[in-house]
Design brief:
Blueprint: H1 20-26, H2 50-55, E1 58-62, E2 73-75, E3 89-93, E4 96-98, H3 102-115, H4 122-133, H5 137-145, E5 149-151, H6 156-166, H7 178-188, H8 191-203, H9 207-233
Parallel strand pairs: 1-3, 4-5
Antiparallel strand pairs: 2-3
Helix pairs in contact: 1-3, 3-4, 5-6
């Protein structure tokens, strides 16, 4: 993905008529009263795949925002304690539906955003965000299971290649989810998320596993106490 300061100058509109791509692209604009209108457009420096984020404890859920159809939100609490594992970190993303027509449609809208002056890169940003999350078919499977993506192409491998091709060599200098990606990176790089998420996956994924873990800890503690008393008795 390349980055340039200025877009190529080319207009698909006339003083009297809007191009159909202009109407399609405008349907993805945020409303005028949106509170979190993007103000810091630029490309992120660090990206983590969907599977990496999932293993760090991030959950994925579909986002339905009335103010902006392409809004992506990351909800995370700064509270870290022994009970940290009971709290959820959620990345909410608008649903991407993939079928035989998706690549053509998205390529045309992205090309329109790239080639038309003063048109914000909303769709380009959204496609690139999905591309950052999807590096392998396993990443895509995670998003499909979370109902972020629907895949009607027939295989996750084909859909993954399509997503990665869409963002390849895009002239890109406006990423409208910079704050969300910075928060994701900050969360991922803390020591707690990966360690606690590992415990949750392996020992707290069911009540019985949790009970077995605590029972093992109690037995281990009692064994140590018994050993100490045996040594003192001698």
């Amino acid at each position: 993905m390349s980055s340039l300061e200025n877009k190529p100058s080319f207009s698909l509109t006339t003083p009297h008529h809007d191009h159909i791509l202009d109407r399609l692209q405008k349907s993805f604009h945020p409303t005028a009263n949106i509170e979190s209108h993007p103000t810091r457009p630029s490309t992120p420096t660090h990206n983590h795949s969907a599977l990496e984020l999932y293993k760090a404890g991030v959950k994925f859920k579909p986002n339905k925002n009335r103010n902006w159809p392409l809004a992506i939100d990351f909800h995370s609490s700064c509270l870290e304690s022994f009970f940290w594992c009971c709290r959820n970190r959620t990345l909410r993303i608008p649903v991407m539906s993939i079928d035989d027509n998706s690549e053509t449609f998205l390529r045309n809208v992205i090309a329109y955003e790239q080639c038309t002056p003063n048109v914000p890169n909303y769709v380009t940003s959204y496609v690139c965000a999905i591309d950052y999350l999807v590096n392998t078919p396993e990443d895509l499977s995670r998003l499909i299971e979370s109902k972020i993506v629907t895949n009607d192409l027939g295989s996750n491998e084909e859909a993954t290649k399509m997503i990665n091709k869409l963002a390849k060599e895009v002239v890109f200098c406006e990423f409208y989810y910079k704050d969300q990606w910075e928060n994701l990176d900050g969360y991922y790089n803390r020591c707690w998320p990966n360690n606690i998420a590992w415990l949750k996956r392996n020992y707290f994924n069911s009540p019985w596993n949790a009970i077995a873990l605590f029972a093992g800890i109690i037995v281990f503690a009692l064994t140590i106490i018994e050993t100490i008393y045996s040594v003192k008795a001698k």
